[in-house]
Amino acid sequence: LSERLGGVFDRLTKQGALSDDDIKTALREVRVALLEADVSLPVARDFIKAISDKAAGQAVTKSITPGQQVVKIVHDELVHVLAGDNDNAGELKIDNAPAPILMVGLQGSGKTTTTAKLAKRLKEKQGKRVLMASLDVQRPAAQEQLAVLGTQIGVDTLPIVKGQSAVDIAKRAKQQATMGGYDVYMLDTAGRLHIDEVLMDEVQSVRDIANPRETLLVVDGLTGQDAVNVAEEFDSKVGVSGVVLTRMDGDGRGGAALSMRAVTGKPIKFVGLGEKMDALEEFHPERVAGRILGMGDIVSLVEKAQETIEAEQAERMMKRFQKGQFNMNDLKQQLEQMLKMGGMEGIMGMMPGMGKMKKQVEDAGFDDSILKRQIALINSMTKRERANPKLLQASRKKRIARGAGLEVSELNKLMKMHRQMADMMKKMGKMGKGGMLKKAMG
Ligand code: GDP
Ligand code: MG
């Protein structure tokens, strides 16, 4: 998978500019990657649409790093969807003791295990006194399972009273938590193999008694698209405040996470990474994003390819400068580099000997929008004019300025700057390879 994507992005990098076809090809691969990661079809479709809009908008700028650009757009969009606006992954509302936390989900999704993992975390990381109660009267020995885990992690469990209903147990847990001075009490509910009315009714009754501060839906991260239906059903019936994805230590790629986020908008709070009691961590959107597209490799691959290209480019320019050549194409490349390297501030700071110019630049109120306007001016010149700036006489200047939608005075400033830089480059070029010019050009 990542090889396929790698190939596509590799080609993009070598081409130098992002065409519509490039974007289409890349997005086709991304789409396949999403579907392979079990992202549901409508979600994948919307996602691709969002990316293609963004990529198309950026293609016009003719970025000098097209492959990287696509990779970054895809990655950022994944993180954006996964993270949502203001999720506090790993944080739970547990003020006003005793704070009830309700755990819901299908049978075998990992509710009981996650209940204990969370209790351990609250106890150890936040110093909370936690009471756990199993409301699972369906499965034999389900209550004992939680009691065993409680003993193992040193967290209290509600004493088992046989023959009580889930609702009875919830009431007792609430009472015990209040009287016993607990900070948090956790209600581990029973699951069914599939969503059914009886289960939902029971969970609703329990919710009405406990009035939970958090209702966490536990979902098996290996189940793909099904997870979304489950999430929607639980949310509409009981109201879900957050999601825990279990079995993210498995082979699944975490597409469920993306689908769930996109469809329900519920924050993913935690991720289960194994059967052990400390195999629970806060949800990190970047990690899951990387996992879904297997992109970690690709990002570094593209960056490496990019570095090589830039080094070759720098080498080529250096040779030109040494010969005293510095035309408008060179200037444009420099301006684009400057933008990329953090604008004027960044590049001036890196170039010793730029002191005098730096002052001029500051006096002129130079900022990055000027860089962009200057690039626009150069774009408005013909090939011949760029190669030979001496051609730029009055009538040509007017045409160029009009083409860029700017005043001739701005073009004059650009030309003055070009002359100064050409002089300086000549001097610096004579100082030879290696040194500061190479460093300044990154
Ligand atoms: P419940 O029916 O929802 O309460 O599910 P359980 O908590 O009993 O978990 C069912 C099985 O899944 C148990 O064998 C757990 O050890 C296992 N399990 C739970 N969470 C994880 C996880 O994050 N990773 C792995 N590998 N196994 C898990
Ligand atoms: Mg259970």
UniProtKB/TrEMBL annotation:
Binding site for GTP: 105-112, 188-192, 246-249
GO molecular function, one term: GTP binding
Membrane topology: Peripheral membrane protein
GO cellular component, one term: plasma membrane
Gene3D superfamilies: P-loop containing nucleotide triphosphate hydrolases, Signal recognition particle SRP54, nucleotide-binding domain, Signal recognition particle, SRP54 subunit, M-domain
Every SRP54-type proteins GTP-binding domain range: 267-280
UniProt keyword Nucleotide-binding, yes or no: yes
Keyword presence, Hydrolase: yes
Cellular localisation: Cell inner membrane; Cytoplasm
Entry keywords, A to Z: Cytoplasm, GTP-binding, Hydrolase, Nucleotide-binding, Ribonucleoprotein, RNA-binding, Signal recognition particle
SMART domains: AAA (SM00382), SRP54 (SM00962), SRP54_N (SM00963)
Highest taxon, organism lineage: Bacteria
PROSITE patterns named among the record's database cross-references: SRP54
Catalytic activity of the protein: GTP + H2O = GDP + phosphate + H(+)
Assembly behavior: Part of the signal recognition particle protein translocation system, which is composed of SRP and FtsY. SRP is a ribonucleoprotein composed of Ffh and a 4.5S RNA molecule.
Family assignment from sequence similarity: Belongs to the GTP-binding SRP family. SRP54 subfamily.
Function: Involved in targeting and insertion of nascent membrane proteins into the cytoplasmic membrane. Binds to the hydrophobic signal sequence of the ribosome-nascent chain (RNC) as it emerges from the ribosomes. The SRP-RNC complex is then targeted to the cytoplasmic membrane where it interacts with the SRP receptor FtsY. Interaction with FtsY leads to the transfer of the RNC complex to the Sec translocase for insertion into the membrane, the hydrolysis of GTP by both Ffh and FtsY, and the dissociation of the SRP-FtsY complex into the individual components.
Protein name in UniProt: Signal recognition particle protein
Organism: Profundibacter amoris
